[in-house]
Amino acid sequence: MDSALEFRLLNEFQRDFPLCPAPFAELAARLGVGERAVLTGLEKLRREGKISRVGAVFAPKRIGASTLAAMAVPAQHLEAVAAAVNRFPEVNHNYEREHRFNLWFVVTAASEGRLQATLGAIEKAAGHPLLALPLLEEFHIDLGFPLQGESPRTRATAHMVQPVSPIGEAERRLVSVLQEGLPLFMRPFALIAERIGASENEVMARIGKWLEDGAIKRFGIVVRHRELGYTANAMLVHDIPDERVGDLGRALAEEPAVTLCYRRPRILPDWPYNLFCMIHGRERGEVEGIIAALRQRHGIADCAHDVLFSLTRFKQNGARYA
């Protein structure tokens, strides 16, 4: 595939994917190439691991239930424990990070009850207790990854994460198909509609409604940042007084270098931090410099903090809610 076409596919279509009967033809028209070039190009990127899928990124807790979880695992047992955790389909991301709590993973399920049951089963299979750190307040969860320049930011607002009502069976069928990604065919929404017993228009309308409501954060190409050279991935955590965490969360969310920003609970005495940011870069020194500047600029250099760089990626899939 032409490198310029590859770059444009990766950089320009991580969001605002066309919701029309022939979306890949629409992409091709915008790029000035043939539809076949777009389809074969996306298949090549998926095969190379540069993208995981094309499709929906669901917002945490808008469709089902989810949590970030952490374990402290002796180094000699880490790979075996990570493999045990990975066997659960509800686990979609699983990373080793530099910390006493060295295994970090995301768990999703169709409901809060099933999530709690899964967490218990993971603890039993892994042989280690886990910390569950559910999302409490969202400041910035964009999940796009611009390869050139900076992603545009609007003024950050905090969103308290509230439990949602269970979705209906027809919607659950659609979620179960969407979480696998769009089929790379000329009429992908028609194929999805056939699989779930709906019409093509109904499928596109439901996706559009979920985007409008915020249940889908974005719809487009989902890239894998490590394969694109962004290997310095740091989770920056702070212990911020509760009365300040909202203002600081919104301020940090507007920083171009911050890809995620949210509040999670402290779990004392083991975990004293309540404000989380994610920062990606090509080199560790670059990210460390960004973090030092952020802390100074926002007046939190004296706040307790930690920086957890990722070391090993054990699993990275799309969330599975159905």
Measured distance between first and last alpha carbons = 35 Å
Task: Report the major sheet.
Answer: 10 strands, antiparallel
- Give me the strand/helix succession: HHHEEHEEHEEEHHHEEHEEHE
- Topology-level CATH name of the domain at 3-61 and 160-223: Arc Repressor Mutant, subunit A
Quaternary structure state of the chains depicted: single chain
List the helices and strands and how they pair.
Elements: H1 3-12, H2 23-31, H3 35-47, E1 51-58, E2 65-71, H4 78-86, E3 91-97, E4 103-109, H5 112-126, E5 131-133, E6 137-141, E7 159-160, H6 169-178, H7 188-196, H8 200-213, E8 216-223, E9 232-238, H9 242-253, E10 258-263, E11 275-281, H10 284-297, E12 305-316
Antiparallel strand pairs: 1-8, 2-4, 2-5, 3-4, 3-12, 6-7, 6-10, 9-11, 9-12, 10-11
Helix pairs in contact: 2-3, 6-7, 7-8
Give an overview of the whole structure.
The chain is α+β, with helices and mostly antiparallel strands and 322 residues long. The longest helix has 15 residues, at 112-126. It has ten helices and twelve strands. Mean pLDDT is 89; it is low at 151-156. The chain has a ten-stranded antiparallel β-sheet. 34% of the residues are buried. The two termini are 35 Å apart. Helix 2 packs across helix 3 (35-47), helix 6 packs across helix 7 (188-196) and helix 7 (188-196) packs across helix 8 (200-213). The protein has helices at 3-12, 23-31, 35-47, 78-86, 112-126, 169-178, 188-196, 200-213, 242-253, 284-297; strands spanning 51-58, 65-71, 91-97, 103-109, 131-133, 137-141, 159-160, 216-223, 232-238, 258-263, 275-281, 305-316.
